[in-house]
Amino acid sequence: MTDMLSAAFVTVFIASVIGQAMPLILASVGETIGEQAGVLNLGIEGVMLVGAYSGFIVTLTTGNFWLGMLAGAVGGVVANLAMLVLNVWLGLNQIVIGLAITLIGEGITSVLYLQNNAKSNTSLGTAPALSIPGLSDIPVVGPSIFQQSGIFWVAIVLVIVAGFFLSRTNWGLSIRAAGQKPSSLDAAGGSVIKIRSHAVILGGAFVGLGGAYLAELTTATFTPFITNGLGFIAIVITMLSRGRILIVAITSVVYGFTVAVGPALQVLGYNVPADVIKMIPFIVVILTLIVFARSSVVPPALGAPYIRGAR
Amino acid sequence: MTTSTAPDVISLREITKAFPGVVANDRISLDIVSGQVHCLLGENGAGKSTLISILAGMQQPDSGTIAINGAITPINSPKAAVDHGIGVVHQHSTLVPAFTVLENLMLGETGVMLGKKKAKERLDELSELLGAQIDPHAIAADLGLGQQQQVEIAKAIWKGSRLLILDEPTSMLTPQAIEHLGESIERVKAQGLAVVFITHKLREAYAMGDCVTVLRGGRNVGHISVEQLASYDEQQAQDAILSAMFGDDINTVSDEAAAELAGATESVRETRGIDLENRPVRLELSGVSSRGHGRDVEVDDVALQVHEGEILGIAGIDGHGQGALAEVAAGQRSTSSGIVRFDGQDVTRLGVRGRQQLGLRYVTDDRLHEGTVGSMSVALNLVVKRIGQRPFWKFGQIQRKAVDAEAARLIEEYGIRTPSSATRAGTLSGGNIQKILLARELTHGARLVIVNKPTYGLDLKTVHLVREILIDFAANGGSVLLLSTDLDELVELSHRIEIISSGRIVGSVTNDGPGTAEKVGHYMTGAIEGVH
User: Fold this and answer.
1) Is A168 within 8 Å of chain B by CB?
2) Does domain B10-91+156-246 have CATH number 3.40.50.300?
């Protein structure tokens, strides 16, 4: 039991929580932007995988983690183009398209990985850490939080900026109107199609970043189906958070905690079967849903393509 | 806004717009001049709303031109309309319910940051102009309809419009709120804006308009210029408008009925008086609260009685629990407390089918979705509530002959205009679909019928017919629970009117002559303003 409070253990534990939470925060923010505009992207799992593989392959080739993140964002946008064209522009069913994106994303990344990378070294190593002067010397918190990669800090800033844009700008107001009542936005002289396009592209970038973060920083490699349902958990978090970025962050950290706690228990010598440990996050999600599902409020126009004049 | 002293003129020339099967606008020409209130009068389906959506850039005319001060100006998007200073208050609210007043007003602004401070100043300015008090931070959904409308008007003239269009602005308002609206319009007009005021009520056109254009069947069938209208007395104006509105039909409908349908005068009760004390209570709700799921307003501790042969009206602003009241009485929604009695029998636990068989019927306001199955034939829709019952079903088998015979009888009796009983119900007009619903519910031992907004969106002749059907039903001993947002309708048909607000009955008025509408309006306003 004494081990549990040791500085080294807590340090690793906090770092692990952050590693699990960050991909989820980024992906949930991406999903939130889309959902606030009325586009439910069930393809997020596939988009994350595309982002993860893009980031992985670029970092593996160039050795540059920042380039990898950029590639992840671009990959996410490209994957989301299917949603943009088929749903926002052509008005096809979001659920069908979303499931297709998930399946395609899973398939393509697995095939590419097995073809190109399965037989070679796939470890990316550790991203260079950015020690914050002063703060990084604090025991426990210093090495776990203030010696993260610079990517961590940029991601945090991006999330805050996204939250700011959604709540404080005309553009954010238009996004929310597109999800609440697109006809009002149209009548006010805004373009529903344009605003939803922005949201889908930006959302794709965030989801792709989430995938790339998962591959580059959390696991430092890529394996097929690496997201393992993380995209769907992002959808749950998005629906429960009702567009509030702070809640997205908090719930994501809670999720990261449940993932990190399993290995920690094993390290501490508790003899818990590995299968049970892997179940913990999902059990928590299910329990959360049972308790809070009633309070999940989605934008009224979520999932409905906008056609002017149709009632 | 122009700086010149000459009035702005927006000229519509030969505007034509056709939809599959109907010409909604047929070569309509009219001029809209600043500083005037131009009333567009016509019944449902006359083409008013289409004309407005063309002016608002929501739809494009098939042919014809719009010119602003002589220069031909295509309006090909709502944004273009806004840019040309055309502001529209649509019949159905375009406010985002979950947004605050300020957020609603800022929607569509350009620039990166939300300009809350500037928006608040502009709102103060407009509040003063409109003579309204609007809390900028209130959530739109929490405002009363009168206030919502003031916000809509503020939004329409937010950027300094030259033209304000009001599409049926009075249809949901209390008499008091209508008066207030009239004052606001006067002030807007005094600012030099042109106002287009759309209504299907003649007396409003006369009271509010400087000039009147009458639309019928998509055509401009009569224009009464500013000079003419000023020189007419009320009766002359009424006659002129009526003959334009009804044209040849004026002979088939009596003058009086026509004037009444056109809302020329304040409505009075048309049903014969009945002696309530001596009549048995047919439907009784005591302390009934409903329990649903969703965001509907539920009914809360409602007590009411409908007697034999009585039409009991329920007045209230739309969405104040009418739907829940109708459903809880019909058995479609469960009660959380209270007792529902029908002919003295406790039916609280009885389902829809059970109440149906006792003679308790319900005509929903959602004709197209809840009321009929659009892809099924007229005949099947007429018997759909008797699925499995003889003689239409035997041993689980549908009996086509019996169904067709019943359908033919009802089509004949209720004058449902359909190519055949096998036609898909969804292809019929709203009026004929409503007749299907009434025929289905009023046949086969109906003792009480609940009708929710029975004439909403129908053309005047069908409105007349539906009201006749209800009056006849009551005169023959049936009972009617009439839920409506149309005060004129309630006054015309009901013996008593109860007022519902936020799911509670807040007042009761006996319909005994002039002034009833004001009394009802008083309760409605009191209830709404009291909440906030």
Assistant:
1) yes
2) yes
